[in-house]
Queue: 2 jobs
Job 1
Amino acid sequence: MTYPTQPIASHYINGRYVEDTAGDLIQVIYPATGQIIAQVHAATPAVIEQAIASGRAAQAAWAALSGTQRGRVLRRAADLMRAANHDLSVLETYDTGKPYQETSVVDATSGADALEYFGGLAASLTGEHIPLGEDWVYTRREPLGLCVGIGAWNYPTQIACWKGAPALACGNAMIFKPSEVTPLCALKVAEILTQAGLPDGLFNVVQGMGAVGQALVSDTRVAKVSLTGSVPTGRKVYAAAAQGLKHVTLELGGKSPLIIFDDADLENAVSGAILGNFYSSGQVCSNGTRVFVHKAIKDRFLARLTARLQGAVLGDPQDPATSFGPMVSARQLEIAEGYIAQGKAEGARLVCGGARLDRAGFFLPPTVFADVRDDMVIAREEIFGPVMAVLDFEDEAEVLARANDTEFGLAAGVFTRDLARAHRIAAGFEAGTCYINTYNDAPVEAPFGGVKASGLGRENSKAAIEHYSQVKSVYVRMGDLEAPF
Ligand code: NAD
């Protein structure tokens, strides 16, 4: 059977599409209807071997180009991606179910931003000169070699670009394995890089489940792995990479706090809570899902929140008027439903939402629990769905301690008009990415990543360069060399 969204073949290796139907079948489901819209095959050992061999073969010549030459390719890819934004956004919506209203302004566009930013940075990557009297040391910033990127399903285009662009800017090759839930978009990123003039083999895409990721991470020819995924997968990838002492970047899950003080601009705070809980149907790693609201404004906050949630337009995600789409899969919907049942059983008060829609697809409306306590499961575990937990607080020191009382540390936000308090709280947060009077912005210019169980390393910004390159010191003696004998 053929589908309109069916890719030419499952994998993209060495500048062209590659198929091997011996690999396990992966069916791509459109989350808005539950219907199959494409099918691909997981990579077989032969496909993995092709991807590794072609990446390794292409990398040295790419690294030997000047940064300006490498950057030019990436910047051209950024332009091509922007020009194709509509089609890429439609595909992203099929792949993930996120509304076109979001994908048309966030996905290919942020991918293009990463390509443009790292394309611009490539020419400025240098070592340094370290004078030592007559002698001196110079450093060379060198690529790591063959890197592996492994993606989650919530931002398939963006994740491929956030990993691919800095890797390529630094002179590496990359093999990218998308999530098996959303295999379509990364293939388009690879096509665009080829059109932009990227030499064959430098950005390969292979499909598969965890086993394919595991095989890539374990291969001795792979120098680095960057994973976006859950904490349990992060632990497995970290352990496998440790066997080969490989470089690792881990962008993992979270249960981030969002603190709203009684002096906050209420409408802005409600906007922050909506953006931090219901964008992409709540399937965003950095979401501020523990919303601590000062007791003095709790009732007003809940009233405005529920009123504004009435304005969410649920429906066909390809319709530009739709502002809230389905969850990515039946499984993810069931996980969220399980947490909702648990929240009710633990005594949290359901304020709105809570039940799936009676229609095809995996629709769960925005769901808000109030009177949530810190020890409830819905306040401790990442749900990764449109489920907000509202908790009460009265005291600044107390709420900061409670905000930090979690194994995670991806993001955190505060809404207040008190300038000193805002910065005091930001300094006190145990999180890699913090927000003051806003939530979930992720511009490519700013480092993004987590602390504690939320991950290692940083994506975006100049910080990413540190994670895709290494420094070599070259000691130069100018005079004679003395030895003891
Ligand atoms: P997941 O951990 O199930 O899968 C992530 C990827 O890892 C998939 O491509 C999967 O095939 C692969 N994988 C699974 N087992 C593997 C193994 N043993 N070795 C190598 N690869 C393996 O996560 P998911 O369900 O796709 O995504 C949701 C999770 O991702 C959430 O926890 C979310 O918070 C997190 N996430 C984090 C960020 C971030 O930037 N911090 C962004 C998006 C999602």
Job 2
Amino acid sequence: MPAYDDANIFARILRGEIPCTKVYEDEVCLAFMDIMPQVEGHVLVIAKSPSRTLLDADPAALSALMPRVQRIGRAAVAALKADGLTLMQFSEATAGQTVFHLHFHLLPRREGVPMRPHEGPTAKPEVLGALAERIRAELP
Ligand code: AMP
């Protein structure tokens, strides 16, 4: 497997070099709105500890990350009044990964609303900002 390369776009977001629509941040993770949402309320939770995929992640970092994924997933489901949650994680390009910094996709799902393709139109910043605020309001 290739080594982690900190020139990827999520590492740049973590360093504050490019903006994101933030939902939550602590010492373990950063959560922000996906710029090409596959459903309304599509959130990415990225690890602060540098790893390329799930496969090379430090197990201790993963065990700190997963409760955050659950907490933010619960908030997204509550904010969107969703019926469920799709959790996605792609490891390596063959599996669909495009940004090589460990992240989880949280997709609040509503009955009868299909998921859009992985690469679609970019959402308006004001729309993402309003969704992030609604999700933040549901975080304990
Ligand atoms: P993956 O295929 O799992 O690596 O997914 C990467 C995700 O990052 C895609 O869903 C993109 O829409 C999303 N993405 C890429 N660049 C940005 C960005 N600058 N801000 C927010 N989301 C992004």
